[in-house]
Amino acid sequence: MARVQRLFMPGMPLHVVQRGADRQICFFDPADFLWYLQQLQRHSHAQSCALHAYVLMTNHVHLLLSADSVLAVSRMMKALGQEYAHYINWRRHRSGPLWDGRYKSCVVQDVSYLLICQRYIELNPVRAGMVRYSGHYRWSSYRCNAEGREDALVCPHSLYLSMGKNKGERQQAYTALFHADEETALQVLRAASRGNAVVGSAKFVRELQTRKA
Predict the structure, then answer these.
(1) Which of 23, 77, 87, 111 has its CA 20 to 30 A from that of 29?
(2) Cα separation of 84 and 181, whole Å?
(3) Which residues of 158-170 are buried (b: 16+ CB within 10 A; e: fewer)?
(4) Is 140 helix (H, G, I), strand (E, B) or coil?
(5) How far apart are CA 85 and CA 139, in angstroms?
(6) 200 CB neighbour count, 10 Å cutoff
(7) Global confidence as pTM
(8) Residues 156-179: tens digit of each pLDDT
């Protein structure tokens, strides 16, 4: 991992994180989660951002997506963040910023880290002690990627699709990843999720260090 300024490569997966101001709660009840997901679907489609995985925690959001333009990601996150902040301020009779500044992002080398990143994202509720099993958490893409439930938000990455000849094989192979010991790689992703970094092979990192969005 190398810490760099915001980077982007067309079509390359991007791990996006947006946190609440001072790590305060952003989602207060199921209606808030649902409203955010509805707007996420609308804006991701409008900007042609393909969403591969996501989780909404109470005070932050993780997204794994691909896009052809960095402007598409920026426009999506700006519109989504502003609209949701207005919604919460109106609904909760509050004022002031909801988010901790701009979103942070991390370029993810698909061959090496995409599926590890998906696992990292969907395991958030388990690591936080909110549930014992990822499938018990309603506000993530796990039940789509691992259990085959329909989710209009999710656009499977080609690497995920290559895991099996059919949905059943892919889901079985994907679920098996959650029993693998990849702690070192997960530590790299945790560090990268703090913002504006890149994860991948040494060669990949060197190439991306020369690119700035």
Answers:
(1) 77
(2) 36
(3) eebeebeeeeeeb
(4) strand
(5) 19
(6) 23
(7) 0.88
(8) 999 999 999 999 999 999 998 887
